[in-house]
């Protein structure tokens, strides 16, 4: 027998009451509001606060970086972008070379795959 999942829907009035309790200080944190009202969703109350309340109640994420770390990240991003562009250009050159070899093979009557094997130093297959 499969266990049925319970989906809870909260009224707007209830949501506003929870947010008001947080703002008024009757509940000291989102976690205590979850416990007090029996709300199971981890981000449920945070969404309500964003929608109905003041965001000062939500925890803030602060990233602390030294100035040289920020410059290093920007340098690495720029370098990665250049590497991707160079790789794309090289891929296009390879496609053009392959097509030129194929056309030359048709024109002069040789198999481009066999030619590549000879150039690579591998003996041709028979």
Features:
mainly alpha, 64% helix, 0% strand, elongated
Number of spatially distinct domains? 2
Q: Helix amount, in percent?
A: 55-70%
Q: What sort of overall outline do the alpha carbons produce when their principal axes are compared?
A: elongated
> What is the SS-derived class?
mainly alpha
Strand content: under 5%
End-to-end distance: 63 Å
- Let me know the number of strands: 0
**Secondary-structure element order, N to C:** HHHHH
Uncertain stretches of 5 or more adjacent residues: none
Rg value: 32 Å
Helices, by number, come to 5
What's the pLDDT, averaged over the residues? 84
Main pleated-sheet profile: none
Care to describe what's here?
The chain is mostly helical and 126 residues long. It is 64% helix and 0% strand. The protein has helices spanning 12-24, 30-37, 44-52, 67-108, 112-120. Helix 1 (12-24) packs across helix 3 (44-52). The longest helix has 42 residues, at 67-108. The chain starts with 11 loop residues before the first helix and ends in a 6-residue tail after the last helix.
């Amino acid at each position: 027998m499969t266990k049925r999942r319970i989906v809870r829907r909260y009224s707007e009035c209830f949501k506003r009451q929870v947010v008001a309790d947080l703002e008024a200080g009757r509940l000291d944190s989102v976690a205590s509001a979850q416990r007090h009202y029996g709300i199971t969703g981890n981000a449920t109350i945070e969404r309500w606060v964003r929608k109905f309340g003041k965001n000062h109640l939500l925890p803030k994420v602060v990233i602390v970086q030294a100035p040289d770390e920020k410059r290093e990240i920007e340098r690495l991003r720029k370098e990665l972008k250049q590497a991707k562009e160079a790789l794309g250009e090289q891929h296009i050159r390879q496609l053009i070379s392959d097509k030129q070899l194929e056309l030359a093979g048709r024109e002069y009557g040789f198999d481009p795959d066999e030619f590549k094997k000879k150039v690579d130093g591998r003996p041709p297959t028979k």
